[in-house]
Design brief:
The complex is a heterodimer. Chain A is an alpha+beta fold. Helices cover 29% and strands 28% of the residues of chain A. Chain B is mostly helical. The chains are: A alpha+beta, B mainly alpha.
């Protein structure tokens, strides 16, 4: 056997392969929780510094352009907010009169996706927030376009793993915005199927699909757990058919959010109603955690 | 030893920079060249099955950190791919672009099919649709992109023609 690695004997090569394959299979055989912890640890050691550097360099190059765009968007949003505040105040007064006002409003926590380019095989992504957040399992995660997933594993006060709705084992309770028909959304390839829609129901291509506030349903024997705020955009109906041998329509849905280039996501924390308006006396005060769109 | 370090360093840069900077620019939908696999093939062709296996395992482990629910699957597939390419290098005629491109395309196809089988088995993900819409076109794309990179590696004397 020569000292150069290129000329190792066949036995050494085969032994190396066997060791590598056994270690790989041992990693695959780990319980899910330990597997995620191990990946987290390996990621921190092997790739985290590199990904942070790349993300920092990209941020510097785009920050100026994005700043201009955001200034314009803030100006437009301020105008919209002024009228929204008036509507909210009226609505809250009516809700309060009916005893419906919620005391714990839901809020958005902005988070950065640590690996911006998500593999098509990925069903989990790691996110980090700028400040410690009140993470809970099953909290919904959205982008400005729509729903992308839910908190799967909390790994620290500022980091967590998010399970994407493209994950094969995940199902999301949804409804059609136009008709309020409920259905269950499953990932299939790059798109989604909306199931349990009766063959005689009114569904059209272009109908918007939003989240429903019925509990989310998950695979892997976990049962129903967690629920979504109603009204989060999920996708748009792209194809409808009624196969003669089936009781239900076949409805394909194109997702609202892009899963291949996740950048910034928002975790919905708090247990109250989605985006309940602040109390009238605090309406004009700036909020660190931000309000909804 | 210095040659081995130089090869590893160049290929690590190719794999990381290629996958992070070039692959998103060259992607057509979900179909993108796999620079990590190209680097692995060059490493295995240049340094043999031992380095190919270890390099594949290490590169796979790095890729696996982004997909923790399948931790180990990439390492498994890439270690096997590195070993097989390393063992077959003495039977290959290096210098013919068609042979080199076909080798990389076949390795990418084998690797991705094995990965897809593992993924379908472990997480009940779809098999046939991604096989025909992503895996096969990506393997061909990777094979095509690999030709100039392998020629460049040969020019930099990263490939050996002994054995």
């Amino acid at each position: 056997m020569a000292s150069n690695p290129a000329y190792r004997s066949r036995r050494v090569e085969t032994l190396t392969l066997i060791v590598c394959l056994v270690v790989s299979m041992a990693l695959l055989a780990l319980p899910e929780k330990q597997r995620i912890r191990t990946a987290d640890l390996l990621g921190m050691v092997l790739t985290s510094p590199y990904h942070r550097t790349v993300a920092f360099c990209r941020d510097i190059s785009r920050v100026s352009r994005e700043n201009d765009e955001l200034r314009a968007e803030i100006a437009a949003l301020r105008l919209q907010q002024q009228s929204a505040v008036r509507f909210r105040r009226d609505r809250d007064e009516l809700r309060r009169a009916l005893g419906l006002i919620d005391s714990a409003p839901a809020t958005l926590v902005p988070c950065e996706v640590e690996r911006r380019r998500v593999s098509s095989h990925a069903s989990l992504v790691r996110i980090s927030s700028a400040a410690p957040a009140d993470w809970r399992r099953y909290q919904p995660v959205i982008t400005t376009d729509g729903l992308v997933g839910r908190i799967h594993t909390v790994t620290g006060p500022e980091t967590a793993w998010v399970e994407l709705i493209t994950s094969p084992g995940m199902a999301v309770s949804c409804e059609l915005e136009r008709t309020r028909l409920p259905g269950i959304l499953h990932a299939r390839g790059g798109d989604f199927d909306l199931t349990l829609i009766g063959r005689d129901e009114d569904v059209r291509v272009g109908d918007r699909v939003i989240s429903s506030d019925i509990a989310m349903v998950f695979g892997e024997g976990e049962g129903a757990s967690g629920s979504l705020p109603r009204g989060l955009p999920v996708g748009v109906v792209s194809e409808v058919s009624s196969p003669p041998e089936q009781l239900f329509k076949s409805v394909r849905v194109e997702p609202a959010a892009s899963f291949t280039s996740l950048d910034v996501v928002f975790v919905i924390t708090g247990t109250g109603e989605w985006l309940v308006a602040e109390e009238p006396e605090t309406q004009d005060a700036p909020s660190a955690e931000g309000a909804g769109p | 030893m210095s040659r081995f370090l130089r090869t590893t360093l160049i290929l690590a840069v190719l794999a990381l920079a290629g996958n992070v900077l070039l692959a998103p620019l060259m992607a057509v939908g979900e179909i993108a060249p796999d620079f990590v696999l190209i680097a692995l093939v060059i490493l295995a062709l240049g340094e043999g099955a031992f380095a190919g296996t270890l390099g594949g395992f290490a590169l796979g482990l790095v890729s696996d950190t982004a997909i923790p629910n399948l931790l180990g699957l990439n390492a498994f597939c890439k270690a096997l791919a590195g070993y097989l390419v390393g063992r077959s290098r003495s039977r290959l005629v290096i210098g013919l672009p068609l042979v080199e491109g076909s080798l990389v395309a076949a390795t990418a196809l084998g690797h991705d099919v094995l990965y897809l089988i593992g993924q379908s088995w472990l997480s009940e993900a779809a098999f046939f649709r991604p096989l025909f819409t992503v895996v096969v076109p990506s393997a061909l794309y990777t094979g095509l992109v690999s030709v100039p990179l392998i020629r460049m590696a040969d020019f930099l004397r990263l490939l050996r023609r002994e054995e």
